[in-house]
Amino acid sequence: MEQEHTPEQLVAGLIKLLEPKSHGEDRYEGRKKRGGVGRVFGGQVIAQALLAADDTVETDRPAHSLHAYFLRGGAEEFSIDYEVARDFDGGSFSNRRVVASQQGRPILNLTASFQRQQEGLHHVDAEMPDVPGPEELESETVVRLRYAETARPEARHHFLSPRPVEMRAVEGRHWTNPQPAPPRSHSWFKTVAPLPDDPRIHRAVLAFASDMTLLGTCALPHGLSWARGEVVSASLDHAVWFHENFRADEWLLYATDSPWSGGGRGFNRGRIFTQDGRLVASVAQEGMIRKAVPKG
Fold first, then answer.
1. Active site residues
2. Which domains does the chain have, with CATH numbers?
């Protein structure tokens, strides 16, 4: 089967992957990733669940937040079933609850809230980090190709596979440097080709990308990386708040920090800015993170 390689094909494939198919009665099916191997990426499940919930809400009520719990890992070789419960429709807000299941077993619970757009009190107390712009940073494709030469064989495909969302790390990716560092990172991201003018798709892509690099932030002070087989990690919960309109096919800065880790868990936060300094989304996540036990 022909591989998708052009930027336009990669982004079209991402949109197709994230858009669930309706089976009526608030039931949906999330497609499996083409050529996928191993565990389903958490951002994919979050984005599919968000779009399934969004499909049951009036179009004048965009999503303003989501909260998800990962129950167990999914497998990329199977599709995912989504069941939406219409818990609340008020004068301004709607709330939806989604259960994602695979082969009859729940893998994620998600609650999303939607609001009719309206004017209100406004302030922002989040300064845009002073970091180099994306044009000043090395292409992620070049970085990944270089690292793939020394990566573990079982992880090499992760670095060689073409990606619909490019991320350019200001400090360098954690898997390129084994030295302990402060638990803070900054990455620019956007899709590699234009997206449709549909805010739903842009929110879903941001939700998808928000699960990238975040959990690794709590490993930075310890100089450990999953890519080198040094840690075992998995997302436990994930929350996103959408503040203002944005485009996910234009560069967005993902500023993450980890104020705490312990007890086999790490807590991480993220703020997402446009290039002109607008804070458009906030993210929080806790994940399981443990030092890997050497084999043999």
1. 211, 233, 285
2. 7-116+138-291 (2.40.160.210)
